[in-house]
Design goal:
Length: 121
Amino acid sequence: MEVEHKAPSKLIVHNIYEVNAEDLIFDAMSSSAQMPLFWCDGYLFTIVAIDLNGKVLNDFLNGIVHWEEVTYCKFPKFQKEIDGSNGVYKFRVLDATNYHPHKDFIKWLKDKSNNKDEINK
């Protein structure tokens, strides 16, 4: 059997929100989808993907990934777990340092962070 890996060539993020760490963790805690927390190069973030149907599915098959939403905060140091709700909940944090779409997004975000108006254009 032949196995092929086809990395995405483009990432489209439809909505980007900067919040404080407490709000990000609360959002992850209150989400019915149990969103994972990712960390990469000094940022903690969650991703909401778009359902793969119609044009988005066609884009995906052609190497274009869509994220509906990214919510992030600056978080200088990686932690494997973060407490939420005064220690009642523990959230696992995935180190996305070596996940290229995530790393490329954070690099883009850092480049744009000096001009907040550029981020949600």
